[in-house]
Amino acid sequence: MMIDYSNFYARIAHSPLRDWLQTLPKQVADWQQQQLHGDFGQWAKTLRLLPEVEPSEVDLQNRVKFGVESDIQPGDAAKLQGLLQQFKPWRKGPFDLFGMSIDTEWRSDWKWDRVAPHLDSLQDRHVLDIGCGSGYHLWRMKGAGAKMAVGIDPGQLFIMQFKAIQKYAPQAITNDVELLPLGVDDLPKLQVFDTVFSMGVLYHRRSPIEFLTQCRDQLRKDGQLVLETLVIQGDEYSVLMPEDRYAQMRNVWFLPSTAALCLWLRRCGFKDIQVVDLNRTSVEEQRATAWMENQSLVDFLDPKDTSKTIEGYPAPLRAVITARRI
Ligand SMILES: Nc1ncnc2c1ncn2[C@@H]1O[C@H](C[S@+](CC[C@H]([NH3+])C(=O)[O-])CC(=O)[O-])[C@@H](O)[C@H]1O
Fold first, then answer.
1. Which residues of the sequence carry a binding annotation for carboxy-S-adenosyl-L-methionine (predicted)?
2. Domain residues of the chain, as ranges?
């Protein structure tokens, strides 16, 4: 029932991430022993049943695609589809495996398209994605030239989905892209990453200032932060805290204006702070699909006025902000 991260530990032993080995293996071992989700055993079994298939083609530059239809026997294709459906709901993607499209709730590729033009080159960089979900963007970071793309996320179904996709990545890539079962509070101050992404996480944190400080503590000097989060319209003193749910999401705490967020970033030790994108989330970008059959954004907006959530707050508006560590 264990997930084996020993290849990853060996991979980072001779990399700038080597100091992580002082805490990481023990944290992961404790997690495997104590904190596994009730369905984890079943998920691990599903993972082991996935058919062995070698991809003849890989595309991480325009999409996340491993293999084409002719790489896989029809029987195995049906088996693959059935097994991957056991990891529903698939929220972040889409993924293209041997001609099969995993059509996820989110078009995470659209988010990538908004972020990518504003990145310092990822060529040969060590990159961290805090709260990476199923790891869709990790693959795109690798596709953009990163030496290593490492994600952390405590969501165990996301980890299983990532492992299922990773199984079909060629060996040369597999070792450079990893998702670790950690929350942001589990990270030591590594101060080594060239780029730190955190997309869709800040509003889930009770203490956003502490969170921004934790992001900074992973960056080397002059390293780039890429922050994507929900914002509201307003001046530098405007911040929304929902009374309870926001667009039906629990655990939503602070939605600042972009001006307030820039102020927070200045106070947290960042420079070169730029709001590079502002986007109202559309019901085409976040919607129910065959791979995520639950309710989605259209159900979370006021049917009479879609500029509002069903709770009466401004509908989701997302900003991308880049900054560098002082
Ligand atoms: N303490 C924590 N530490 C790290 N991650 C956490 C923590 N708590 C929750 N998460 C993770 O943060 C992610 C937020 S989703 C963004 C995914 C991707 N980045 C995207 O931009 O599409 C957006 C949303 O669901 O609202 C989830 O995968 C959580 O498991």
1. 92, 106, 111, 131, 184-185, 199, 203, 318
2. 6-325
Using the mean position of ligand 1's atoms as its centre, give its distance from the Cα of residue 301 in Å: 21
Nearest ligand 1 atom to alpha carbon 133: 28
The CATH topology of domain 6-325 is: Rossmann fold (3.40.50)
State whether the beta carbon of 201 lies less than 6 angstroms from ligand 1. Answer: yes
Measured CA angle at 276 (ends 270, 278), to 5 deg? 120
C-alpha 51/C-alpha 41 separation (Å) is 18
Q: Is 108 in the pocket of ligand 1 (CB under 6 A)?
A: yes
Judge residue 287's burial from the number of C-beta atoms within 10 Å of its C-beta, 0-12 exposed, 13-18 middle, 19 or more buried.
Answer: middle
- Asked whether the predicted pLDDT for residue 1 surpasses 80, the reply is no
pLDDT tens track for 206-235 = 999 999 999 999 999 999 999 999 999 999
> Does the ipTM surpass 0.95?
yes
β-pairing, 305-309 vs 100-102, is unpaired
Test site for ligand 1: of 204, 218, 230, most ligand atoms within 8 A of the Cβ: 204
Q: What is the pLDDT of residue 33?
A: 87
pLDDT, tens only, 129-173: 999 999 999 999 999 999 999 999 999 999 999 999 999 999 989
Is 185 annotated to bind a ligand? Reply is: yes
